[in-house]
Amino acid sequence: MSKNIFILLLILTKTNLYAADKLSESIFAKNKIKVNGFNEQQKKITIETFQKIYNINPQKLKVNNKIYNEYSNFEKLFQFKINGPNLLHWMLKRMKSLNYVNTWTVATNDGAGNISIGDEFFISTELEKMYILIHEARHSDYGGFTHVPCPDNFPFISVGQPEFVLKSAPGCDKTTTGSYAYQAAFLYEVFAYQLFENYTEAGYLYNSTVSRILPLHDYESNKVYSDENISFIFNKKNEIIKKLNNFQDIYFFKIWETENAIAYSSEKNEGARYTMIFYKNEKDAIISYKAKANRTQAVFMIAGIVVFCPYGDNKSLFKKLYSILAGMGVALK
Ligand SMILES: [Zn+2]
Predict the structure, then answer these.
(1) How close is the Cα of 136 to the center of ligand 1, in Å?
(2) What is the CATH classification number for the domain harbouring 230?
(3) Are 143 and 296 in contact (CB under 8 A)?
């Protein structure tokens, strides 16, 4: 009996402590986060969002374990089981400043934790606000996990921004460990534990989010192989480069050469240039393509040519290269 009372007291104490953790404006200073341009209401909304995350306290799974293990990626990505205090700590660690910027964008991160937040954020639903901040926080890791263009044939819509056409727009991820993966992982936990009343919204948003993680799908329209003799294309490299150099403001020059491959780079600055490698045989090209396919930049392979695109590239080069090769009689399939 006394043991039971002890346990009851322990539970009550824990619950009280939990309820007492009411976050205030000091959370910004405590975590060395500069807040620029927010009015009182915007600060309040942000603190309320932090509070909702802090209060996450999963109880019982509402899907069976087997299904949960099949879909849950949270622990693998975040390195802890979902719980409010750890999740909030994870986010705050990745925020250097929160800046009100009145643009069409909901939120952006410069890759170093300086997060810009627009009007759209403050009128989003509570669930959206939570996953937006988690998404932006992930952009602070390892160079930012910059988005890549969604495929030209991308069939999905942007639920949050109905006016936004995702086809060819930089709203997808080339990696399964970028911002959309973290966003999706969070949404799945909300769904599986029914953490909030609107857990069905989390389910729909989860589906919409995983659509942006390209390696999970077969939407890569740019993975084109050819049954032509690859060495024919290799021997035509000078002609292909000449044709490409007549295109827009791109100028390709040779950067290295081996027995089996030759690489060119476009002359723009480091972050905005293409690298194009011609391979003598398709096997080497595929190895090279696969080794680079997990980069955050778009990488495509066409008829033994592997191309690394600059961040945010809209694949205009892919289309040009495709038409040059087709014009030379290469049967692309
Ligand atoms: Zn993003």
Answers:
(1) 6
(2) 3.30.160
(3) yes
Measure CA 116 to chain center.
17
CA distance 106 to 82: 25
Which residues form the domain of 126? 21-216
Cα–Cα dist 288/48, whole Å: 47
Asked if 203 and 248 sit in the same domain, the reply is no
Extract the residue ranges of the chain whose pLDDT is less than 50. 1, 6-19, 220-221
Terminal C-alpha separation, the chain? 76
* pTM recorded for the entire structure: 0.66
**CA within 13 Å, CB half, 25:** 9
276 alpha carbon, distance to own chain's centre: 24
Domains of the chain: total: 2
- Tell the burial category of 26 from Cβ atoms under 10 Å away from its Cβ (0-12, 13-18, 19+): exposed
Return the pLDDT at 250. 79
Taking the centre of ligand 1 as the mean of its atom positions, its distance from the CA of residue 248, in whole angstroms, is 28
CA 43–ligand 1 middle distance (angstroms): 22
CA angle 156, 125, 101 (to 5 degrees): 90
